[in-house]
Amino acid sequence: MSRTEFVLATAIILFVAFCLGWFTNWLLHRFTRVAADDVAQLDRMSQELHEAEETRDQAITYLQQREAELTNQLSQTEAELRAAMDGLRDARHEAEEMRTYIAEHQQAG
Questions:
Q1: pLDDT value at residue 81
Q2: With a threshold of 0.70, does the pTM exceed it?
Q3: What is the average per-residue pLDDT within 13-28?
């Protein structure tokens, strides 16, 4: 093989490799290309997702505030119930003392 044949064979091999690389790049670009409609749809979906996350965060904040309010009301109601039960217990004790006092005076008198 002479020098000219070697250069020509090398040039052909390099040209074929270049053509295969270009064709592969073209195929990849064709199959991975994103249409403008797809990009617009992805933008719209991301905006909707962002709005949904904000709505969720607002709902969580509202529920936490509402839970705190209800817990506070429950604590107040329980305190009022304890006070009423204590008052009722004192009133029963006082009534029992009055009955005992009246019963003792009726027997003595």
A1: 97
A2: no
A3: 95
CA distance between the termini of the chain? 149
State how far the Cα of 91 lies from the Cα of 96, in Å rounded to an integer.
8
Cα-flanking dihedrals φ and ψ of residue 35, to 5°?
A: -75, 160
Q: Which residues lie closer than 8 Å to 9 by C-beta, 6 or more apart?
A: 1
Within 10 angstroms of residue 62's Cβ, the number of other Cβ atoms is: 10
HSE value, Cβ hemisphere, 13 Å, CA-based, for 68? 5
CA dihedral angle for residue 37, residue 40, residue 42, residue 43, rounded to 10 degrees: 180
* Three-state DSSP class for residue 109: coil
- The average confidence (pLDDT) of the chain is 93
Residues with Cβ within 8 Å of residue 1, at least 6 apart in sequence: 9
